[in-house]
Predict the structure.
Amino acid sequence: MMFGKAKSLLNSSRLSKTLLIVGIFLLLGVLEYSTPNDYVFGYLYSGAILLISSWFGEVATLQATLFAVSLTMLNIWIPGRETVLVSTVASRAIASIALIVTGFLSQKLQRSQEAINTTTAKLEAQEKLARLREDFASTLTHDLKTPLLGAIETIKAFQQEEFGEVSITQQQVLATMIRSHETSLKFVETLLDVYRNDADGIKLNLSPVDLVDLAETVTASLIPLAAKRRIHISLNYGESDFRRSLWVLGDTFQLQRVFTNLLINAVNHSCRGDRIEVVFDSQASYQVVKILDTGAGILPEHFPYLFERFYQGYSDRQAKGSGLGLYLSRQIITAHGGIIWAENRIDVETGAMFAFKLPVHLFQHGKDCE
């Protein structure tokens, strides 16, 4: 019944539009044929043609254009009471050409509008699908934390011999299992943070932070990983041979993650015996940190994607990552009002530089000078 009502309303609307078009043609026809033929009203048919193009489509527009041109040209000889002048024929020919152009352009515009509408609908559908995927991934990531935490605690209970005696070999296996689960948990937490940051932004706990202190802390924690691969990590304090401080206003935990991500990225792209250098530079408005490696460097086509989510590697990696570290680092640095970038080194044959800069903490800087 509802379908019948809708169809009835549609037919009623179409009938109203048809009657309006017919009325316009009748009115213009009366004006055309009741006035001398040197008065050209044919241009006014363009309004009706535009309406028909919008309401009834291409075939109806073509028919209406031909009809309007015919009425315009026939008025030269009908009703036949006046002498036909060359100027009159020229004027009506020009009006007919204008009507043909109007019909053609109106259809072209209509097709363009339909293409735009189709593209818009596709984009909206893709955005909706992307949002659904993001929500699903975020929910799934959140739900994965609980079983991983439970598994880690259970394995630790076995390690502590709460369920019976455990041999040395079994202890080693359990330790490996814990490390594996903790790695998975860290990935899940990073993924959850990435989705949360995209949706809500990063909530920063700001305080004066010395970037040199953070770099030293993170470097010390990564020494075992670097030592396994015989990679040396050093700190360079710029023009000074002595330790210096680079103060910024930032979130200690989040900035520590940036150092960890960038240094692990450098380790993963380095070969045995390579050297990684953390260089500090204090400028007038920014504190700059550069992480230099001597790996294979970055191919030009990879630069646009380095800080994209899930992008993995710009060379043959020594270890595979999640593809989230650089993306999360960009989120954090951007939230601090800073800039992060990458480029190939020109001071050595091969190697890459990942760097970031953050606004100088003026209050702390001024306090140091007092």
